[in-house]
């Protein structure tokens, strides 16, 4: 699916002016600081902003000006927005009943004959729960959505009895059952703790593959962007600042452009190369260098991994040190020293395999070491500061 847009939306205190053409494959993340226009652009794609002007096309089809109910999108809000007077099951059936083609010939007569034992009684009468198909032709079955999102134990409960993570799983399942061509998610995990986020992120990452539906996902959390994204659109001050594969965008964009919420650092990609079960240390092959990362559970050997390393957790040395608790000393080349206001500066470093690191150090340290661009150094990386994120 391709998204082509040339849009403006003017409000008293904000103006969005977004242009670009993007391939929507897997999960595409709208990323940027608070107030950059991420949610506004998402709402515009969903038809919630009728004052917008310009053009918005999905696969060449103009969407701008069409009302929300006429657009084949599934929208997941930050706060789930389930019907409080309905059980989880009836929330799901409401979406299923109102999906396009719910009683079409494809999902109707033939399907009801073939699936007579799967007729579901409820507030909407009796109708088939199977037979609908997603964009790539794979079936979107009610039972499979319930199973994939682990909703079976929740079906008889009301929304007020659910945890935040459970409500969001129901909201995602309900959006899927509308038979969308495109899923839109507006920071659906922002109110959840780390453990609940970790449980739901793999489910979101799997949606495009399992149901054939691309996802546009809004977040300002670097960890979520790295875990989910095949493509990333970076927004700044109501405009699209950059776009592309997430590691490439994070490598070339100045840290300040990511917003004050994002700690300066670098993103790397590697593969699981070995695991020491006694000490719970994972070796990550970066294609020329190796990192040792503490993890409680090892991914399969060869699994693709993404890692985020904060600039404040990288130190520089001219020799690989001995008798030091930091276990990662990676050969790097100093590409640039980037001055900041105050006592600090940042060093841009390249690894042997071509990856980028950043190190935050004082101007005094840089002067006393007489650091020069182009020289070979060692980057000392605190393993405990690494977050490993398995890629999509």
Walk me through this protein's architecture.
The chain is α+β, with helices and mostly antiparallel strands. It has a domain at 265-390: OB fold (Dihydrolipoamide Acetyltransferase, E2P) (Beta Barrel), CATH 2.40.50.100. The chain contains 9 helices and 22 strands. A 6-stranded mixed sheet has the order 6-9-10-3-11-12, with helices on both faces. A hairpin with a 4-residue loop joins strand 18 and strand 19 (344-351).
Secondary-structure-based class equals alpha+beta
Distance from N terminus to C terminus (CA atoms, Å) equals 18 Å
| Biggest sheet: strand arrangement | 6-9-10-3-11-12
Shape: globular
Q: Give the second-level CATH assignment, the architecture of the domain at 265-390.
A: Beta Barrel
Enter the CATH topology name of the domain at 265-390: OB fold (Dihydrolipoamide Acetyltransferase, E2P)
Low-confidence stretches: 102-138
CATH superfamily of the domain at 265-390: RNA polymerase II/Efflux pump adaptor protein, barrel-sandwich hybrid domain
Rg, please? 24 Å
**Main sheet makeup:** 6 strands, mixed
Overall average pLDDT? 85
Which range best describes the helical content: under 10%, 10-25%, 25-40%, 40-55%, 55-70% or over 70%?
10-25%
């Amino acid at each position: 699916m391709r998204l082509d847009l040339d849009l403006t939306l003017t409000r008293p205190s904000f103006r969005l002016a977004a242009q670009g053409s993007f391939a929507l494959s897997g999960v595409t993340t709208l990323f940027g600081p608070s107030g950059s226009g991420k949610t506004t652009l998402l709402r515009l794609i969903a038809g919630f902003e009728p004052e917008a002007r310009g053009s918005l096309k999905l696969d060449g089809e103009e969407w701008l000006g069409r009302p929300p109910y006429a657009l084949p999108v599934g929208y997941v809000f930050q706060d789930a927005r389930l019907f409080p007077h309905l059980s989880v099951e009836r929330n799901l059936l409401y979406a299923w009943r109102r999906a396009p083609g719910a009683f079409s010939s494809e999902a109707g007569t033939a399907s009801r004959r073939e699936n007579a034992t799967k007729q579901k009684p409820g507030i909407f009468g009796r109708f088939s729960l199977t037979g609908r198909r997603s964009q790539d032709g794979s079936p979107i079955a009610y039972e499979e959505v319930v199973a994939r999102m682990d909703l079976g134990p929740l079906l008889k409960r009301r929304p007020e009895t659910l945890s935040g993570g459970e409500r969001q799983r129901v909201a995602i399942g309900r959006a899927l059952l509308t038979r969308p061509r495109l899923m839109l998610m507006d920071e659906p995990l922002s109110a959840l703790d780390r453990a609940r986020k970790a449980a739901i992120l793999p489910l979101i990452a799997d949606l495009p593959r399992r149901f054939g539906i691309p996802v546009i996902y809004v977040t300002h959390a670097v960890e979520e962007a790295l875990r989910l994204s095949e493509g990333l659109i970076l927004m700044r001050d109501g405009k699209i600042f950059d776009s592309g594969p997430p590691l490439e965008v994070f490598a070339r964009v100045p840290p300040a452009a990511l917003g004050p919420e994002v700690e300066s650092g670098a993103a790397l990609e590697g593969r699981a190369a070995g695991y020491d079960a006694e000490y719970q240390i994972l070796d990550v092959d970066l294609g020329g260098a190796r990192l040792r990362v503490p993890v409680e559970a090892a991914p399969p050997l060869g699994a693709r991994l993404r890692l985020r390393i904060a600039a404040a957790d990288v130190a520089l040395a001219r020799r690989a040190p001995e008798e030091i608790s930091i276990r990662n000393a990676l050969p790097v080349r100093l590409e640039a020293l980037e001055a900041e206001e105050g006592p600090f500066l940042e060093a841009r470093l390249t690894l042997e395999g071509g990856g980028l690191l950043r190190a935050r150090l004082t101007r005094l340290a840089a002067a006393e070491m007489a650091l020069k661009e182009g020289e070979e150094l060692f980057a000392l990386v605190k393993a405990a500061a690494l977050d490993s994120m398995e890629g999509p």
